[in-house]
Amino acid sequence: MAPAALLQRLTWLPAVIAEARAETPQARTLVLDVPGWPGHRAGQHVDVRLTAGDGYQAVRSYSLASAPGEQPAITVARVADGEVSPYLVDVARPGDRVEIRGPVGGYFVWEPAMPYRPVLLVGGGSGVVPLRSILRHHRQSADPTPMRLVYSVRAPELVIYREELQAEHLVYTRTTPPGWPRPAGHIDQGLLREVAWPPVDSPLAYVCGPTAFVEHLSGALLDLGYRAGDIRTERYG
Amino acid sequence: MHVDGNAAAGLLTQVFARDMTGAHGTCGSCGHNGPLAEAVVYGEAAGTVFRCPTCDNVLMTLVEAPGRILARLAGLRWLAVPI
Amino acid sequence: MPLLMGTVSRGFSGTHFRRPGPELADRVPPGQYLAAGFPVLTAGTTQHIETGLWSFTIRGGRAEPRWTWDDLLALPAERFTVDIHCVTRWTKLDTTWTGVPLDTLLAEADHDAAFGLAVSYGGYATNLPVAEITGGKAWLVYLYDDEPITPEHGGPVRMLVPGHYLWKSAKWIRELWLMDEDRPGFWEQSGYHNFGDPWRQQRYFND
Questions:
Q1: Residue A201: inside a domain, yes or no?
Q2: Contact assessment for residue C170 and residue C137, using Cβ atoms and an 8 Å cutoff
């Protein structure tokens, strides 16, 4: 991060929804026009603030889905009984305004030059969003670092970024597509042994998803021999 | 319901004027040392509460008031900030 | 819910909270919104305390009385309806609770202390002058809407002091410490007001 950026005061920036794209029946990607957007790193997020006509405000944190150099975009999954996500998934349309604070976060971030170490990305549900940013950045920067994604999702119709993630390892926990070689179930030790880079290669792991998923997966990676300091985690509740 | 320190990155940046998710804190209770990103964070409360992932001790609270953020860091023995 | 006005997002209305109409000005304190549901706020892990293991002790008086769940249920209870106000700016009207007035319990402690600190399972604590939790102003409650209080809302037994912001109504109550000197609790040490009167908007420490 440039020294100037360190001292930059973090303020709410007005943003306009430029594009809304349905990913699944429950999730939508919103591309944002943010004048003065300083650019972001893969894996960072933004805080989004909504203001109602009566002055009521709500703030939520969302991972950026786009790669560095692209327009900021977020992918939002509808949370049952939520207040902000149903608005962003079902109501908001291009031209509508929100406010953005960010980009923020520097821990769950990947950069091409970093380590020359293989990278394992493990996402559960919409935990795949920041990993998609990392994967996209990796592809666009033609970085030779080996990178692989394991994406755990409940059912085929809930897979987001379907086209882009075809070549990655999808794990269905409830329902599989017809003829899928693996029965529905959670990511287990056997699968990790198959697809995760072996610990001898000093891999880095990025694990993102619901709290229980992250706890389970970081435990499984430790059992496999990954070093605790090489597993970065992000939990969204 | 809790999340982790990543979700509080924006608030932390408001307070410290830099990214703090990679800063390492040492728990004043059990001595566990780790990045703030890995702290257990309760955000749906009167303030944002950071707890030690090992012993549940309250490391830090951040309360957003109009025009100021009230930060209490009494549960941290050390805070190592990368420069 | 910050205070600054921002850009209005078309079509966004708080589905969970709304601004009260002027007819409710004497019911809803300044700066508060009406909650549609019953939001759950917690500064730590939700405590799951079995009623058989729950007890309540008052410390610091000449007697240190203790009640088990069965002891509490055997005491004369009151069923009452009050409005509750959370410092995060929501108010819920007409909530009905059943429990034992703290007066009944404090009478057993034989004390002349001026301050109380409510201490919860899980380590939460909150303070109030004894004058604010006596005289029919505070209860230990075990039913909400005639049903057992869920762990998320502080069951099996929580304190209820509706005259103050809701963080003063300790969930999962375990003890009350009686003291000659005031001793700030969890949020009171973290920037919130020591007294917390919603009608005077005593939210933060020097409000």
A1: yes
A2: no
State the amino acid at position A108 in one-letter form: F
Is-contact C126 C184, C-beta < 8 A?
Answer: no
Q: With respect to residue C47, please indicate whether it lies within any of the assigned structural domains.
A: no
Please judge whether B10 and A61 are an interchain contact, meaning their C-beta atoms are less than 8 angstroms apart: yes
Instruction: State which residue of chain C sits closest to A88, comparing Cα positions.
Output: C12
- Identify whether the C-beta of residue A214 lies closer than 8 Å to the C-beta of residue A124: yes
Tell me whether residue A114 is in a domain: no
- Report whether A237 contacts A231 (CB < 8 A): no
Q: Is residue A60 part of a domain?
A: yes
Please write the tens of the pLDDT for every residue from C111-122: 999 999 999 999
Beta strands B58-65; B48-51: pairing state = antiparallel
CA distance A203 to A122: 13
| Closest-CA distance of chain A to residue C166, Å | 20
Number of domains within chain A = 2
d(CA A24, CA A158): 6
Residue A55, chain C, CB below 8 Å: the answer is: yes
Please give, rounded to a whole number of angstroms, the shortest distance from the CA of C33 to a CA of chain A.
8
* pTM of structure: 0.89
Sheet holding C115-120, edge to edge: C66-68, C55-59, C173-179, C115-120, C125-129
Asked if residue C123 has pLDDT above 70, the reply is: yes
- A109 assigned to some structural domain: no
- Taking CB atoms and an 8 Å limit, are C42 and B42 in contact across chains? yes
Does C14 contact chain A (CB < 8 Å)? yes
What pLDDT sits at residue A166?
87
Let me know if residue C67 belongs to a domain.
Answer: yes
Q: Within chain A, what is the greatest distance between any pair of CA atoms?
A: 58
> Which DSSP helix (H) or strand (E) runs through A61?
strand A57-63
Preceding omega of A199 cis (within 30 degrees of 0): no
